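[audit] Reproducing an earlier prediction to check determinism. Same input, same settings, fresh worker. If the tokens differ from the archived copy the diff job will pick it up downstream; this log only records the rerun itself.
[audit] input (431 residues):
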Amino acid sequence: MEIKRDLYLNKLLSLKHNGLIKVITGIRRCGKSYLLNEIFYNHLLESGVDEKHIIRFAFDSGDDLNLIGESIIEIEKQKRRVDPEKFMAYIRNQMEDNEMHYLLLDEVQMLDCFETVLNGYLRKKNMDVYVTGSNAKFLSKDIITEFAGRGDEIHMYPLSFSEFMTAYKGDKYEGLSEYMLYGGIPLVVLRDGAENKASALENLFSEIYVRDIQKRNKVRNIGELEDLLNIVSSAIGSLTNPEKLKNTFKSIKNSKITSTTIKKYLDYLEDSFLLESAQRYDIKGKAYIETPKKYYFSDMGLRNARINFRQFEQTHAMENVIYNELRMRGYRVDVGVVPITEKNIEGKTVRKQLEVDFICNLGSMKYYIQSAFSIPDEEKRIQEIRPFKKIDDSFKKIIITKDIVPSFYDENGILTMNIYDFLMDEKSLEK
């Protein structure tokens, strides 16, 4: 079954023939290879491109490596990468004329000196280059710097909820429950049965993600990294920092791990795209607050698998899903802080900080968003909108709730919408 990824296909199409390398990044198994080698490839054919002008090469394919006189077994035994001279000779032989050729390369980090090879191809006016990779430098957030400003990144996430629903057989209410539990990794979504889905997620975590991070960063104490993953998994959407996490390690594990080491491990997890951090922003002071931060998982299924599906709080799961959806839509997302002063019951002036779950920025657009699992009464609604009423600008303020309510504006101009409408319509915030 093909799951359409039109968001990313359209991004690739918008970058065609721009003279830059198109680099598809993202967490492993999110669908990068399928996007490039199936969806984009088929689109090129359907748009009239001659098959001979599309050169596909997967550096982890034994059959493809045989075409250039390489052996995947020998490469593994010798712990080396693919010979670039053999690859370049093969590409030269494939280019029979001066018409535009499309070069689609998968797992390109397995090619030795790949940066130099790709930069060389940029000088060819009849070559449009697209690459994807799943580990080492291609799992680094700063991969584009490898191409000295000559690369365009298309960052890919696991399935959005609307993409997920194209493959799900039930209604959107049942679908959201499953999406928040098992996430949007395509190979997991396409599996039948809770046991199969859980098993796939657990295997991905232990056999792919943790092992890649350990290998790439030469992590010696894998136990500490695993413990940190467990702690962060249990506290998604909570404010934390390395010092606070160090104290948690000391009290729970009697560990002497330093905050410096924890910071390093958190960076590894972000570089692998397993986690993303949201920084706090003082709305009144118009300044970032360096610490603490909130951490969110790129896929809720992976997070739940990490804690053996024991701790499933829909409030936090919904917040994580909203965060991911906003990032997929291209927004920069921060956590809002609204400092206020007020008198307590004793008449003393006290300072407090109210929180806005998300501040979303994209170009000239800005939205303030609260994630409220349920608003059962007026008291809860007053609590949710209180930070909004302390913000003295006119940008749109929105409450997203799991309650089944039609979208409406209240007397303060605050929009309330249900999460299903938000997730199913990529233009929902603009209405």
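[audit] rerun output stored. Observation attached for the diff report: Residues 194-217 form the longest helix (24 residues).
[audit] end
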